[in-house]
Amino acid sequence: MSENKLILVVDDDTDLVEMVAMKLASENFRVAKAYDGLEAMDRIKEERPALIILDVMMPRKDGYTLCDELKTSEEYKDIVIVLLTAVTEAIKSTNYTHMGGKTTLADDFVPKPIDLDKLMEIVRDNL
Question: Which residue, 23, 77, 78, 108, has most beta carbons within 10 Å?
Fold first, then answer.
C-alpha cells in the first residue's frame, strides 16, 4: 500500500529531516526533503507528494502559511498535511499557539519531540 508514495518532509532542522526520511524510507516510502516553506513549494511543484510532514516554525515561509496556501488551492488541496510543532513547549516565547495548529486546515498534528512510531501510524492512516 505504501509502495512508491512520495512524502515530503519539511523542517529547518536538518537532523530531524534526515531522521524522519530514514524512517519513511525504511517503510518503502519515497522521500523528498525541503528546509523551509519556499523550498517546499518548489518541491511540491516538481513532483506532487501524497503527504507532507510540515514543521510550523521555519524561516522564509512558516508551516501554517504554506498549509493554508495548499489547502485553499484547487491544485493541491487534496495533499495530506501533517503539521509538526514544538509550540506547546514554547508558548510564552512565540507568537504561534497550539490552537493555531488545531485551527489550520492540516489533516493531522504531531507535537515535537516527535514520536516516530506515532508519526508513522498517522502517515499510514492517511495514505
Answer: 23
Asked if 66 and 40 touch (Cβ cutoff 8 Å), the reply is yes
For residue 42, what are the domain limits? Answer: 6-126
Could you tell me the CA-to-CA distances from 87 to 8, 17, 61, 111 in Å, in that order? 21, 18, 16, 8
What is the CATH classification number for the domain harbouring 26?
A: 3.40.50.2300
22 belongs to a structural domain:
yes
Arithmetic mean of pLDDT over the chain? 87
pLDDT single digits (tens) 57-81: 898 999 999 999 999 999 999 999 9
Count of the separate structural domains present in the chain: 1
Please name the helix (run of DSSP H) or strand (run of DSSP E) that holds residue 68, with its range, or none: helix 63-71
**Directed axis angle between helix 116-126 and helix 14-26, to 10°?**
60
Q: What is the pLDDT of residues 86-112, one digit of tens each?
A: 755 444 444 444 444 445 688 988 888
Give domain status of residue 31, yes or no: yes
Under 8 Å between Cβ of 54 and 12: no
For residue 82, the SS3 value is: strand
